[in-house]
Amino acid sequence: MDLTIQHLRCFLAVAEERHFGHAAARLQVSSSALSEQISSLERRLHRPLFRRSSRSVELTEHGHDLVPLARQALEAMDEVVTWAKGEVAEPRLRVGLMVSSPRFRAIMATAARRLPHVRWQIRQLGFLRCSDALAGGEVDCAFVAEIGRNPAPAFEAVPLWEEGCVLVTPSGHPLAGRSSVRLADLAGETFISVEDNEVSERWYSALSAEGSGPRLLPVARNFEEVLELCGAGQGVNIAGESAPETYARPGVSFVPIADSPPATTYLYLRRERRSAALDEFARIATGED
């Protein structure tokens, strides 16, 4: 079976983008060349990896199984290239990020100052890829925000900070001019949510008002998309109270929620053996170092 790294790079691009055109642009190849790479990979594996239609691209069960294996293979190849360049002695930490915040930037600034020998990479993962990227070895750790104290069970979750929550609304929304709102005020609102049901349920389960769950519109992959959709009047969203410092923009308002559970940011770590540099970074993030 003759597989190449290019096959796997093309597969992962389509798996992550769920769109051949977007994946082709990301890889700087033509759509036809990308399609041929995927077809070639499927022929070699004797398995369909994607369900294609005129409107969507979805992973098959075989495709889902291949994603973490492909990431591990690409990671191993990257390590070989690093070794070949004579950089193997330089520690590298790849930090995954769900959403940015002033506290995250402060931690990274401190870590860069205290660990000057480390080569840093920050990967913007959005809402959907944090767990897969960490489990598949694409990142070494991930900063993940959750509402309440409800971390994902698959990882070691180190709590870093808590903050109040704000309602993200279009500027013309009836609640936009309020000094604050309560969860009961949000009954009947449509919440811009993410495409992953597990992530959505964990985020919104703590926000049920009077026993009824929120109405979700699962269309976003990251907070930038949430903001654009809120600004367009498609719905509202919940964010940590620090969001306006990083994400303020015309057409979107942020209103404090008086009785919301806190938004907790965790440092997610795989449970297996970790590098000394990663352990030191975790101590810096928690303020222990």
From TrEMBL:
One of its GO terms (molecular function) is DNA binding. Keywords: DNA-binding, Transcription, Transcription regulation. GO terms for cellular component: protein-DNA complex. Residues 1-60 form the HTH lysR-type domain. InterPro entries: LysR_HTH_N, LysR_subst-bd, WH-like_DNA-bd_sf, WH_DNA-bd_sf. SUPFAM superfamilies: Periplasmic binding protein-like II, Winged helix' DNA-binding domain. PANTHER family: HCA OPERON TRANSCRIPTIONAL ACTIVATOR HCAR, TRANSCRIPTIONAL DUAL REGULATOR HCAR-RELATED. Belongs to the LysR transcriptional regulatory family. This is HTH lysR-type domain-containing protein.
